[in-house]
Design brief:
Layout lengths: L2 H11 L9 H15 L2 H11 L17 H9 L4 H14 L4 H17 L9 E3 L7 E6 L4 E6 L5 E3 L10 H12 L7 H14 L5 H11 L13 E5 L7 H6 L11 E7 L5 E7 L5 E2 L2 E2 L1 H16 L3 E6 H4 L4 H15 L2
């Protein structure tokens, strides 16, 4: 019996403990799978050539590291949970991992998928609308392919696959460069600023939404664009009829509540965070409380959460207070830390 076969036998007989999803548990399972599946020389080939992971450390090379664990940590050090989950999925799908350790990765992924997140990857991202509602048609209902047949000039459509480890501002900058035809020698910062101005324009003169957007944008300082993007005015549902048309037909309201989300962050292709900024129109008619509006709002929140989204709300009044930008910045710090 070889060493690997013996290890498989031991792992198969070992009692399984309940798996806990965290960055630490995924990192440990990934490291153990690499360490016990590959030799030191093969490990470097798998990481660099098969998985094509970039080596981020400038003052040394992978070959300089003596131990397997140091090589793995050199490639993945500082990765947050969504990136580790994406790597685990690739290992299960693309590599021949030692049996028992493959079971550990598979169990963690199953628990991650069961415990949270949206069940299917994102397909359509229509956002930053700053004019009339776009009119959509199903070009291919079988494949859920949509087309914008009118008012497409007033919104943006991200037409690239959403990366498994989330949609970063770097992804958006590259997409915007290609979409706008900017020269290759135009700096990422300049492209990012142009995109920032376009996204910001979709918020109009809504001061509280602008405060949230600008506070998050300061996180991109010093060219640090490789972090999840804050995407404004994202279409969640589409009702082909306008409110005016429904009233003319004697219908009350829309069958699809909250057609647009104020902000969306894609921490991974399935882990999605929605931010809503509530003005009085969400729960009142003028200065009079409206229980119907409030009940519609909380019902939609429940539906989103049950679908796997996380929903966080800011009250418009709290964003008008002195020091609101600091409060929002602390929220984003805590959210980012929670996602690690």
């Amino acid at each position: 019996m070889s060493g690997f076969e013996f290890l498989d036998a031991v792992l198969a007989d070992a009692p399984r403990v309940p798996v806990k999803v965290s960055s630490r548990s995924f990192r440990s399972a990934i490291e153990e799978a690499f360490i016990h599946t590959y030799t030191r020389s093969d490990l470097e080939i798998v990481l660099a050539e098969e998985l094509r992971l970039p080596w981020p450390i400038a003052d040394c090379k992978p070959a300089d590291e003596k131990y397997k664990r140091d090589v793995i940590q050199g490639y993945t050090g500082g990765w947050d949970l969504p990136r580790l989950v994406a790597l685990a999925r690739r290992m299960v799908a693309e590599l021949e991992v030692t049996g028992g350790l493959l079971d550990d990765l598979t169990a963690l992924l199953a628990e991650y998928d069961r415990g949270g997140g949206v069940g299917t990857p994102a397909k359509n991202l229509i956002f930053a609308a700053k004019g009339p509602k776009p009119e959509l048609v199903l070009r291919d209902a079988v494949n859920n392919d949509i087309a914008i047949v009118r008012n497409g000039e007033f919104c943006l459509v991200y037409d690239q696959p959403i990366p498994a480890d989330g949609l970063t501002y770097s992804n958006l900058i590259q997409w915007w460069r290609e979409r706008q035809g900017f020269a290759d020698d135009m700096s990422p910062r300049a492209v990012g600023l142009d995109l920032h101005n376009r996204l910001r324009a979709s918020l109009g003169d809504n001061l509280v939404e602008l405060l949230v957007f600008d506070t998050y944008a300061r996180r991109y300082k010093d060219g640090q664009f490789d972090m999840p993007a804050l995407i404004p005015q994202v279409y969640l549902h589409f009702d082909p009829a306008t409110q005016l048309a429904r009233r003319a037909a004697g219908q009350s309201g829309s069958p699809l509540a909250r057609q647009r989300m104020d902000f969306l962050i894609l921490f991974s292709s399935r882990h999605r965070v929605v931010l809503e900024v509530d003005g009085k129109q969400h729960y009142a008619n003028g200065d009079t409380a409206n229980p119907t509006l409030y009940s519609e709002m909380v019902a939609e929140d429940r539906r989103l959460r049950l679908s796997g989204y996380e929903v966080y709300r800011f009250g418009g009044a709290e964003l008008m207070k002195k020091g609101a930008d600091k409060m929002v910045a602390e929220f984003f710090d805590q959210l980012a830390e929670r996602m690690r």
